[in-house]
Amino acid sequence: MAICLECRDTGVEHPLACTGRHPSSQRFLDIIGELINLHDKKQRDYGTDADPFNNIRASAKEWGIPAWVGA
Fold this sequence. Notes:
Elements: H1 16-19, H2 26-46, H3 54-63, H4 67-70
Protein backbone atom coordinates (compact mmCIF):
# COMPACT_ATOMS: atom_id res chain seq x y z
CA MET A 1 0.00 0.00 0.00
CA ALA A 2 1.41 3.36 -1.00
CA ILE A 3 1.96 6.03 1.61
CA CYS A 4 1.61 9.62 0.51
CA LEU A 5 4.90 11.48 0.96
CA GLU A 6 3.01 14.73 1.48
CA CYS A 7 0.12 13.87 3.80
CA ARG A 8 1.37 10.43 5.07
CA ASP A 9 -2.08 8.98 4.35
CA THR A 10 -2.44 5.39 3.15
CA GLY A 11 -4.92 3.69 0.89
CA VAL A 12 -5.84 6.72 -1.18
CA GLU A 13 -4.99 7.51 -4.77
CA HIS A 14 -2.47 10.31 -5.03
CA PRO A 15 -0.71 11.63 -8.12
CA LEU A 16 2.82 10.49 -8.94
CA ALA A 17 4.24 13.76 -7.63
CA CYS A 18 2.73 13.02 -4.22
CA THR A 19 3.50 9.28 -3.85
CA GLY A 20 6.81 9.23 -5.68
CA ARG A 21 5.64 6.16 -7.60
CA HIS A 22 3.93 5.62 -10.89
CA PRO A 23 0.45 4.08 -10.43
CA SER A 24 1.38 1.04 -12.52
CA SER A 25 4.04 0.12 -9.94
CA GLN A 26 1.39 -1.11 -7.50
CA ARG A 27 1.17 -4.64 -8.94
CA PHE A 28 4.95 -5.01 -8.65
CA LEU A 29 4.85 -3.75 -5.06
CA ASP A 30 2.04 -6.20 -4.24
CA ILE A 31 4.15 -9.09 -5.55
CA ILE A 32 7.16 -7.90 -3.53
CA GLY A 33 4.91 -7.81 -0.46
CA GLU A 34 3.88 -11.43 -1.10
CA LEU A 35 7.56 -12.40 -1.38
CA ILE A 36 8.33 -10.67 1.91
CA ASN A 37 5.50 -12.53 3.63
CA LEU A 38 6.69 -15.87 2.21
CA HIS A 39 10.27 -15.12 3.30
CA ASP A 40 9.14 -14.29 6.85
CA LYS A 41 6.95 -17.41 7.05
CA LYS A 42 9.74 -19.70 5.89
CA GLN A 43 12.16 -18.19 8.41
CA ARG A 44 9.61 -18.79 11.19
CA ASP A 45 9.01 -22.36 9.99
CA TYR A 46 12.64 -23.41 9.57
CA GLY A 47 14.74 -21.08 11.66
CA THR A 48 15.04 -20.21 15.33
CA ASP A 49 14.60 -16.90 17.13
CA ALA A 50 18.38 -16.56 17.39
CA ASP A 51 19.16 -17.72 13.84
CA PRO A 52 16.56 -17.56 11.06
CA PHE A 53 18.87 -19.66 8.85
CA ASN A 54 19.48 -22.37 11.45
CA ASN A 55 18.08 -25.10 9.21
CA ILE A 56 20.51 -24.24 6.40
CA ARG A 57 23.51 -24.12 8.72
CA ALA A 58 22.57 -27.38 10.46
CA SER A 59 21.93 -29.22 7.18
CA ALA A 60 25.16 -27.97 5.66
CA LYS A 61 27.14 -29.02 8.73
CA GLU A 62 25.50 -32.47 8.70
CA TRP A 63 26.29 -32.94 5.01
CA GLY A 64 29.78 -31.47 5.30
CA ILE A 65 29.23 -28.65 2.82
CA PRO A 66 29.49 -24.85 3.12
CA ALA A 67 26.23 -23.23 4.25
CA TRP A 68 26.04 -21.13 1.06
CA VAL A 69 25.90 -24.37 -0.96
CA GLY A 70 23.07 -25.64 1.22
CA ALA A 71 21.15 -22.45 0.62
